[in-house]
Structures are given as C-alpha cells and as structure tokens.
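SAMPLE LOG
Freezer: B-3
Tube label: C17
Construct: single chain, 188 aa
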Amino acid sequence: MVKKLKREDNEIIDMLFSRDQQALSYTEEKYGALCRKLAFGILGDYDYAAECMNTSLYKLWQSAPPARPRSLKAYLCKIVRSVAFSMWKKNSTAEIHLTELSELLPDNNDIDDQLDSTMLIDLLNDFLSKQKQVNRRVFILRYYYNLSIEEISEATGEKIPTVKTKLYRMREELKKILLKKGFDIQKG
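STRUCTURE (predicted):
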C-alpha cells in the first residue's frame, strides 16, 4: 500500500503557482473533510457538499495565481463558503444558521451598503476580539462553520443551554453596537 505524503501548505501553494495539478489532490487530502463538513453545514446535503468541494478546488486552481494566500486553509474555507452559499441560494430548501443574524445584516447591494459591509467586517472583527476565547469560538463555530448547537456544545464542552445563552447575548450585544454605529437593522 502506497501512503501519500502529507504536504505543507506553502509547498501546496508553490505547486499551485507552478500549475502542478497534484496540488489539488494534496489540498483535497489535507482539507477535504473539513471543507465537506463546512459545505454540509450550509447545504445540508452530502451530494451537494461533494459538488461544492469539487467546485471549490476548481476555483482555487483558477485563483492561484495571482492570489497567494497567507493561509491555504482559511483561503480554501472562504472559497467553500462562497460556493456553498451560492448553491444554497439556488436551493432554498437548505437550512442555515445565519438566519439568526439576518436581522442584523444589510441586504441591499448599492455602493453605500458595500461600504457598510466593509465597516461591518471591521466591526465584527473588533467585536470578536473583545470576547472571551470560549465565546469567540462559540460564535465562529455557529456563524462561520454553521455547526449546530449540539455540535458546538460537544466541541467546546459547554452545556447546550449555555451555548444558546452565549449566542443570544452576543447577538444582542452586537445588535446594540451596530445600532450605535448607525447601521440600519432589519426588522424581521
């Protein structure tokens, strides 16, 4: 039995830049399970998650070069999320946890809203940097990785009611911050 060699991210990125297609195999081997789990959390379907992974690898291949990511894992997860959300929009039967934050997020696409999106990202980063480590992890697991409350409880060792309370309090705190900064919070 031939065992594949594990590749470091920088080596895989170098392979992408030299247009070595083997880079995609190494990327899938190293991050495939994580990416499919992330896609499944958004799409709720294993077949769609596998399709999302394939599309994401293709997009990774297309984007490098010119983009040279500092973190292959973070860059690939960003691509997977983008592809999964696009697929989710086409298949409205998928369930997503971001609906919990939807009342806080702008939904228009004009220039002002694009500027608001940049400000929102900065605000979210600042908000999360001020949270306790466990709270930050709970928030990210829920709204970035789309894990269920039960999965977050298992990953953090927090009880389910505690996870629910932490998420509720963080949403309320974030809502106050956004209102204070002049964001037009959706009513819904």
